[in-house]
Description:
Helix content is 35%, strand content 25%. It is an alpha/beta fold. The protein has a single domain, classed as Carbamate kinase (3-Layer(aba) Sandwich). Helix 1 (22-39) crosses helix 3 (73-99) and helix 2 (52-63) packs across helix 3. The longest helix is centred in the first third of the chain and has 27 residues, at 73-99. Adenosine-5'-diphosphate is lined by residues 9-11, 50, 222-224, 227-228, 231, 255-257, 260-261. Adenosine-5'-diphosphate binds at residues 9-11, 50, 222-224, 227-228, 231, 255-257, 260-261.
Amino acid sequence: MKTLIVALGGNALIKPGERGTPEQMINNLQAPIKQIAKLSEEYNIVITHGNGPQVGALLLQQEATEEITRMPLQILVAETQGQIGFLIESTLDEELMRLGTDMEKYFLTVLTYVEVNPNDRAFIRPTKPIGPSYKRKRPGYVKTSKGWRRVVASPKPLRIVQAREIKKLIQENFIIISCGGGGIPVIKDGTHFQGVEAVIDKDLASAKLGEQINADILLIATDVEKVALNYGRVDYKYLDKVTTTDAKAYLRQGHFPPGSMGPKIQAVINFLESGGEQAIITSIEKIKEALEGKAGTHFSIEEN
Ligand code: ADP
Ligand code: MG
């Protein structure tokens, strides 16, 4: 079976305007997880996911009182791998039981560390927005398209530390949930991994994992069905098929902004150039249709 990585975007858990209650998150997971459970009959599956709203919420929670010890960002990222992993697992479990494949399919959330370069320029220039957005200016926050938000360092993923374990588990028929929130950022200090305060981009981490486990397909599920040129303008144009050469040119021309579509396109390019066969960007609702070639923007190295 081919190995498919499905990267779930923020809105798989919290839709615009929602406060992110447990009920809302479980409800939102139904659509992607139903499709993924069905697809697990045809593909080896790795699910990765973001954590922007959740990790920002944990930061706010601990800042709300002096009575508890504050945890550094890397520990909060680890916490989000647990909370979101749990929500995905329980939704998946129900779906596999419904399909009657729960006895053949196993699943596991893997606490995943991702090595970064301590000299990555991102540590001097934080760019990744996390947590809620505010209409009014706040100290230390920056203005984003969604309002004032906290931004943190987002260094490039160099290596997924648990890639070997993940690969082994896939061969044993496990559906794996990993690289949650882009992974727990660590730097290697001799034989020791040291956590660092950052949030890695989950799409770039997913591409890196794909490279290390030799995945065949990377599917990035977000809130738009297709990638567009001139997005948000009257002369926008949806893309069905894109080569990596064209994707690079469009990226240079500024069609894909750094905080949103930019890293997804870069992840797709990285994945295909490191040996991945196919990459797709589509909406959470159209994961299955996109794999059948009936939805989404499809990327490949060669013109086809
Ligand atoms: P996720 O939480 O899934 O990572 P993001 O908000 O980071 O989602 O990225 C998806 C968003 O990118 C879309 O909602 C859309 O508003 C924006 N976007 C920016 N440029 C483009 C483009 N060229 N084509 C399609 N969507 C784009
Ligand atoms: Mg994003």
